[in-house]
Amino acid sequence: MEAPLDPEPQLEVTWEDAAGIRTVKIAGEIDLACVEELAAALEADRPRLVVDLTEVSFLDLTGLRCLTDAAVDCEMTLIPSSPVRRLLEITDTTGYFVLAGFEKP
């Protein structure tokens, strides 16, 4: 017997603004179903964004596009999980961000 699919991906987004920097913490899966929630968190009238993705288990291309679009307007530091880091490497998009906890091979 197959396990039922979860119809709604679980995503937790929290953020804090301090000293001109918005810090966004994301946990769960980022895909088309929840990209609007991610975009809302990244909308900040701040020169810097720090985005902690260490608890993100999945990131699709719509989520990646949302991140790169937000990075155009400010300096964005990403703290990627392993799956996110792998997608950044495959798509050659590491140059859009300042990466923390990440070393290029």
Can you describe what's shown?
It is a single chain. The chain has 105 residues and is α/β, with parallel strands linked by helices. The protein has a single domain, classed as Transcription Regulator spoIIAA. The protein has three helices and five strands, in the order ββαβαβαβ. A five-stranded mixed sheet has the order 1-2-3-4-5, with helices on one face. β3, α2 and β4 form a beta-alpha-beta unit. α1 runs parallel beside α2. It is globular, with a radius of gyration of 14 Å.
**Main sheet overview:** 5 strands, mixed
Spatial order of the strands in the main sheet?
Answer: 1-2-3-4-5
- The computed structural class is alpha/beta
Give Rg in angstroms. Answer: 14 Å
CATH topology: Transcription Regulator spoIIAA
Tell me the series of helices and strands, N- to C-terminal: EEHEHEHE
Which CATH-level-2 architecture?
2-Layer Sandwich
Shape: globular
* Average pLDDT taken over every residue: 88
- Separation of termini? 42 Å
What is the count of helical runs? Answer: 3
Count of DSSP strands? 5
Q: What portion of residues is helical? A: 25-40%
The CATH class is Alpha Beta
CATH superfamily membership, which one? Answer: STAS domain
Low-confidence stretches: none
Report the β-strand fraction as a percent range: 35-45%
Tell me the count of domains.
1
